[in-house]
Amino acid sequence: MSINLIYLIAGVAMFLAAVLPSVLDRYAVSAAMVLLVLGMVIGLLPLPEGMRLDPVVIRPQVERVTEFTILVALMGVGLAIDRSFEWRSRAAWAAWSPTWRLLALAMPLTIASVALLGWGLGLAPAAALLLGAALAPTDPVLASDVQVEGPRVETPDAPDSPDDGGDEDEALGEPVDEKDDVRFALTSEAGLNDGLAFPFVTAAVLLAPAGGLSSVGSWGLQWLAWDLVGKVVVGVLAGVAVGWGLARLAFRSSRRSLRLAEQGEPLLALAALVMTYGVSQLVGGYGFVSVFACGMTLRAAERNHHYHRSMHEVVQRLERLLTLIILLMLGMAMTKGVLGELDWRGVVIALALVLVLRPAAGWVSLRLRARPADLPGGLGRKETLATAFFGVRGIGSLYYLSFAAGEHAFADERWMWSTVAFTILLSVMVHGTLATPVMRYLERRRERAGIAEPA
């Protein structure tokens, strides 16, 4: 394959990434599905000499690319959520009820169930825990079909941005996630659980050298106090601090040259995510949590300003490009041998996770003392079922596995790569096929309920 053919394939793929979201909007096919299949087809072609797609060999590159892609997605998610959060407000905590339930109950239940299943199928305890931690978090990158669309502004009298007209702002009305608790729950969950899965990946790495559960006593308390709690708190504080400082400059600086919101310079979002991640890593917090917290803090400043939409658009375009690269490479790797170690155990774990374990964990967490459906943060039975089911697996799983494999040499690493890759493929196909019809059904149902309400 010549370099010219590589350029041709890359150009066609980028064109598809640009047009597929609008072309496929009416169909039960996601852009991720098309790009993954396209990558698998490309992988069947002869590749240039020296081009390696073995994730074990190129693990450092996989870790860095997936890490940055997740960071970009998390900043986008933080900017996209319209529902505000005020930590001193009981109403705000209640409106975020689905998020806390999915994080505090659904994710640990999913980690535990996958780990126990893997252990029962013959995996070592550390490998089973790593598999559970890597596959548990929902993905902020590949779940766009079931997430909020982006920041909405409610100020029709505000000056038009260069990209939008004031008429569009008027037509937007109430922010989309204020009534769509399914999309809000899945978006906010994806924004936080990537960082909150990190302590369990760390636990697997700590458990691996000892080879047994008896070693937990030597590191368990420190892990509980620092890795599970301390680093999360530090990460949140770092993200809020950086986001607050940048927001003060961008919106309220006494010097006009620093008021980037007036200039409409959207690259602040990229500067913010890189700066936040660096600060968080330096002070010992979880960078994923920090970047999401920074995005939320930036959005909280001048919430209805059109500048948020400009920043989100830049982040979204970069995320789409990075996702294109990863999906193409993953698809190519699938037809070049990454599924070579897949056996019946991996198939069972993937099917169980996507079709049983995550839906069951999500259902239990959301229905236990359920919040009334007519209140913000409340979900009806059908909305609960959709929220529980659409736990999309994706790029976060690749990052966690590559990170852990860099910290310790797991004997089952190649098998885990095959299992994780197959799980992502299954999730992309199943969730990508069902997302459009299910979300449209729920939207029509919500509209009918709104019409039926008394004036």
UniProtKB/TrEMBL annotation:
User: Does rRNA-binding appear among the keywords?
Assistant: no
State the Pfam families in the record: Na_H_Exchanger
Transmembrane residue ranges: 6-23, 28-45, 65-81, 102-135, 196-216, 228-247, 267-300, 321-339, 345-364, 385-403, 415-438
Sequence ranges assigned to domain Cation/H+ exchanger transmembrane in this UniProt record: 16-147, 186-440
Region called Disordered, residue ranges? 147-174
Q: Which InterPro entries match?
A: Cation/H_exchanger_TM (IPR006153), Na+/solute_symporter_sf (IPR038770)
Domain of life of the source: Bacteria
Q: How does it sit in the membrane?
A: Multi-pass membrane protein
Answer yes or no on keyword Hydrolase: no
Q: List compositional bias (Acidic residues) regions by residue number.
A: 160-174
**Entry keywords, A to Z:** Antiport, Cell membrane, Ion transport, Membrane, Transmembrane, Transmembrane helix, Transport
Subcellular location, in the record's words? Cell membrane
Protein's name according to its UniProt entry: Cation transporter
Organism for this UniProt entry = Terrabacter tumescens
